[in-house]
Amino acid sequence: MLVVWWPDWPVVSLGLSCGDPVAVMEANVVAATSPAARATGVAAGQRRREAEALCAGLLTPCRDRTAEARAFEPVVAALGQVTPLVEVVRPGLCAFGARGPARYFGGEQSLICRVAEAVGKAGPGEAGPAVGIGVAEGYLAAALAARGGEAVPAAATRAFLAPFPVSVLGQPELATLLGRLGIHTLGDLARLPEPAVLSRFGPKGRWAHGMARGEDARLLAAGRPADPIVAEIVFDPPAERSDTAAFAARSLAADLVLRLDGADMACTRLRIEVETEHGESLVRLWRGEEQQLDEEQMVARVRWQLDGWLSGSGTDPPPTAGIARLCLAADETVPARSRQLGFWGGRSDRDRRAARGADRVLGMLGDRSVFTGMVQGGRYPDERVALLAWGEQSTVERPDVGLPWPGRLPAPAPGLVHAEPVPIRLCDPGGGTVTVDGRGQVSSEPRRLSIRQGRWVEVVSWAGPWLADQRWWDASDGHRRARLQLVTGNGVAHLCFVEKGRWWLEGTYD
Amino acid sequence: MTARRAVLPVLPVLVGLFAEGGIRKGSVVAVEGGAGSTSLLLALLAGAGGEGAWAAAVGVPLLGLEAAAAAGVVLERLLVIPRPGGAWPEVAAAMLDSVDMVVLGAPRRCREVDGRRLTARARERRAVLLLEAPQSIGGPKGGRETVPSWPGGVDLRLRVERSVWEGTDRGFGRLQGRRVVVRAWGRGTAARERRMELMLPGPDGSIEAVLTPVAGDLTPLRSYVDLDACATQETMAG
Q1: pLDDT at residue A385 above 80?
Q2: Three-state DSSP class for B181?
Q3: What is the pLDDT of residue A405?
Q4: What is the domain range of residue A172?
């Protein structure tokens, strides 16, 4: 991965010099600062008055994200000379896979020179700070390497990451927590065993742990679908203004997210494709800043991109005609099953809130205390639902719900299931224990039932028996059972089985 | 916006039980013991789980998830915490913060302060706290218990009054469905008692209405005569 990073882009993009004290404001809070402002103690997150009190003569322009994107467009366009596959992460930060281009240009160092030359002309020039270019295995390492303008060999990734503080992961809550436990650097974190990290910090912790080990390439393991999910719109008449097209992008993004949800996927890299009336075609890739792109983020990126193209701020001339077609494609996806919500940050506010709650409970009760269910194939109540521990990616033994399971019990399913069967006694009118013979005949009619040595209740009707040899191939786990449904006088129905002459209660139709 | 709606939706067949057409957000609801209470609980979960809502089941270790799925509960959005142990008040509070409906297997003893705190938390977070009667299948009392008095008070109580299974005979057929009468009563807008006859569950695990809700006393149906006879037999047997 090669990362091109312009420090302080929100300041640079406004055409201000980094020598001046500047604090870019968003909603009356400092969003970004220039080095000169930082030197006086101004920091992101401060309120306007606080910042102004710290630094006399502080310039406080308002943040304009569209302008940031527009100003970055020439840089991205210039990188097009080096590789066609540039991913924009946010204005000021973009990346591309370095392996191919490095081979083409004769090594990583000459690739870096080449990139520096290309973006040097397109960038803000003398007034701005020097651009940072880093090459390393994985996105996190490359982004950190860009700070020092280094090329990190793949084998040294973990050693390179080790001295950085955990706060570079961009998870302030987790960083605070780790700090209190004496885990300050990525190296400290990487040394912990993975199961311990998972049980203590949940999925987020595991993600951080993987990143600290330099395994983010694996974590983001390219779900590049051969047949990507695409949403497109044709404008007739063609859209002349970027805001007309951006407006349409909203429903397009909603459509894309809906279809991703249907496929249980989340988008981590979005491809924006535009075709003009004259057949010009423009393509750009955007990578999610925090893993996956949600609907709002997609819309914002389309707006920025269209604005950048149509304003003609790139090195390429602006398109000569209106936009005839706009296409959004989920270029890279990850599975987005709900049990991974903690991992990928969730799809809706409600999902994220629920995931946070589940993580909190994991923190209180420990590993394997929170579950979600999944119906799977099987014959009997204790087999037909898999409990998936929250935060673990369980593989399900028998997921074939659709297959016929000969001998499975008919619906309805019991509302209460006893994972540990409860001992019961089942008697006929004469007081003898009911038995079932090898051919599925009951010895006598069930009449009275006593659960856990409790008082006797009348059996008013019953059905069965259903015979089963379960796992007969397995001498230790195999067993032969006969099941009965029993309805007692108080309106309760039970599911019972007999094995080796003893009766057990397995479920209650409550 | 759904967030601004005052009630959590219930299944259309159950609307008649709720004065406000749904379960008021922020309220405490008790599902009383007795045969059918689990099915009723699942029906409430199924109704509330639409529109992307999440639910949690805290301290209900026996809950049959296959039956839940058949009743229409979205299992992906049901967090199951079967054994919270002594930390149940904290776990329930964390869940009230995070999901729309929390089923709590009501403990037999609950400290005044815990109960009041959870009631207040539900109100503040606009989540529904659904108290489920302790399960004591086969225990000394041989059935379900009522929800003990809850320190913060209960807004609405629901009880399955009568339950008759259909489909089985002496050795023939199979369980197919159950006729129940559900009674709802409480305080405030729910002060007027409501009753309704339902198939809970119906033959395919879902829920069907048998009669429209009627105010006041329900005329006894013929099928209940048998039930009363059974009750007499049971007393004699016991």
Answers
A1: no
A2: strand
A3: 56
A4: 162-219
Nearest CA in chain B to A356: B98
Q: Is A454 close to B142, i.e. CB distance below 8 A?
A: yes
- Is the Cβ pair B83, A508 closer than 8 Å? no
Question: Which residue carries 């709802």 as its tokens?
Answer: B184
- The closest of A479, A484, A502 to A494, measured between CA atoms, is A484
SS3 A252: helix
Cα–Cα distance between A358 and B98 in angstroms, integer?
8
Residue A369 lies in a domain: no
pLDDT of residue A471: 54
In tens, the pLDDT along B198-238 reads 888 877 666 776 654 444 444 333 333 333 333 333 333 33
Which helix H or strand E contains A298, and what residues bound it?
helix A295-310
One domain for residues A140 and A174: no
Range of the domain at B212: 2-237
Q: Residue B75: which of A373, A451, A487 has the nearest Cβ?
A: A373
| A487 and B175 Cβ atoms separated by less than 8 Å | yes
pLDDT above 50 (res A65): yes
Q: Which whole-number Å values give the CA distances from B231 to A242, A456, A502, in the listed order?
A: 76, 13, 28
Average pLDDT, whole number, for chain B?
A: 78
Q: Is the pLDDT score of A407 beyond 80?
A: no
Looking up tokens 């047949």 gives: A227
In a domain, A238, yes or no: yes
B4-61 pLDDT, tens per residue?
568 899 988 888 888 888 999 999 999 987 788 888 999 999 998 877 889 999 999 8
Determine the Cα–Cα distance for residues B38 and A509; give it in Å rounded to an integer. 8
Q: Which of B1, B65, B141, B176 to mutate to test the interface with A (most CBs of A within 10 A)?
A: B65
